Structures are given as C-alpha cells and as structure tokens.
Amino acid sequence: AQSVTQLDSQVPVFEEAPVELRCNYSSSVSVYLFWYVQYPNQGLQLLLKYLSGSTLVESINGFEAEFNKSQTSFHLRKPSVHISDTAEYFCAVSPPTYTGNQFYFGTGTSLTVIP
Amino acid sequence: EAGVTQSPTHLIKTRGQQATLRCSPISGHTSVYWYQQALGLGLQFLLWYDEGEERNRGNFPPRFSGRQFPNYSSELNVNALELEDSALYLCASSFLRRAEAFFGQGTRLTVV
Fold first, then answer.
1. For B48, which of A78, A85, A90, B56 could close a Cys bridge (C-beta 3.0–4.6 Å)?
2. Measured between alpha carbons, how far is A3 from A27 in angstroms, rounded to an integer?
3. What is the arithmetic mean of pLDDT over A78-88?
4. pLDDT at B91 over 90
C-alpha cells in the first residue's frame, strides 16, 4: 500500500526567504510523484510532477522538487518566496497501472508568507 | 479546453436529507475521482471510477455512493446526511495512463 507523509502541517516564512516543504512516501512499487497547490476556496492545481528521467523538476513559478529514491522523498523548495505563494500544498503519489492511476495525498502543508 | 466542472458550487442540506453532487471531466478523460476535504483533515479519498466501473473505494460508509455515466461524467450521492459530512467535495479526472489528475473547483456541502 502507498502512503504519503507531509511532516510539517504549517510553515511560516518571511517574504524573500527560502522554504522547503517536506514529503516522504512509502511504496513497494515505482510511483509518479506530484505537488499540488490549493488557494483559499479553490480546487487543487498541479504545481509540478515527476514521472521519470531527471530527478529535479521545476515549475514555472520558481518551485522545484527533487526525487530521492533512496530516501523515498520528494521535497518541494523555493529559494525566495512571495506573498502570493501563501497557500496549502499537497504532495501526492500515484502507482501507475494499466487501468489507470490511483492518487494518494498527504495531509497538506499550509505555507504562510509573512511580509 | 474546458476544465473539470462541478455543480453545484454550494449546497446546503439538513441532516437526514440526501445530496447529489455532479462532475464533468475534461473531454477525453475516462477516470473520475472523488475526494472529501473536511476542515483540518486533508483530502480523503472517496471513490474512483474508470470506464463506467468503480475501481476503488475509500474508507467511507455505504451511504456515500456514486456512478459514472457513459459520457464519463459522474455523480456522488450522500444519503442520510450527517453534520460531519459538511466539507468541500473535490472531483478530479485523468486520462488512462496519463499521469496527473486535474481538479474541479469543488462543491461546498453544508449540513445543518
């Protein structure tokens, strides 16, 4: 069975400071990995994904995440956060199967950027 | 391309009533997922439909049920509503063997 652990439920950080949101997963098979972001009263938007290839993936708004197979981690980082990054962030894993994908989500990390 | 659409946006019901939530996936997507997001509890997996069949079900009582129609749209039914069913219900869709899921804006269900 797959499970996802987001170790930090809340992360406050000052504007322009770096941030890391941690995500660890457990799985007996290869998985796809995702980070989603949820702004207040909205659905989830895909931030970035790892399917295969380079272990470092980047988003268009400056976030990056690195897949570490040995540590079963997929931590999300940004070198300098902006007020608009304040949101809930969810890590997810999906073991690909022939018939489709089941998605397993972490409990989320609330990122608050302080002016 | 239209995204995942959910209706209604908000729904207010009294305890004991039934609620029906609807989801239209992105065109061409065959899988639909339902999640419950209650305050402080993250996303709880409810149901997964693909090609009209229920593929998996989360740890929810039988009064949570649903179906997927031939056009791949889906319906979530919650019978005998309880106060703790108040939550944001999110629908997502994906295409067979495409990796990511795309989410709708959700239906906010309030049980009073």
1. B56
2. 7
3. 96
4. yes
Report the residue of B21, B37, B74, B107 to disrupt the A interface, i.e. the one with the largest count of A CBs within 10 Å. B37
Task: Out of A98, A103, A108, name the one closest to residue B101 (CB).
Answer: A103
Taken as a whole, chain A contains a residue count of: 115
Number of other CB atoms surrounding residue B9 within 10 Å: 11
Q: How far apart are CA A111 and CA A57, in angstroms?
A: 20
Q: Structure tokens of A72?
A: 């079963």
Tell me the residues of chain A between 47 and 106 that have a Cβ less than 8 Å away from chain B: 49, 51, 90, 94, 96, 98-106
**For A35-47, what is the mean pLDDT?**
91
Average pLDDT over residues A52-70: 90
Chain A neighbors of B99, CB-CB under 8 A: 32, 34, 49, 51, 94, 96, 101
The C-alpha atoms of residue B46 and residue B59 are separated, in whole angstroms, by: 7
Computed over every residue of chain A, the mean pLDDT equals 90
The encoded tokens of residue A68 equal: 């570490």
pLDDT recorded at residue B39: 84
Q: What does the block give as tokens for B78? A: 């919650």
d(CA A68, CA A70): 6
Q: Is the pLDDT of residue A96 over 70?
A: no
Q: Which residues contact B76 (CB under 8 A, 6 or more apart)?
A: B20, B21, B22, B23, B34, B46, B47, B64, B65, B66, B89, B91
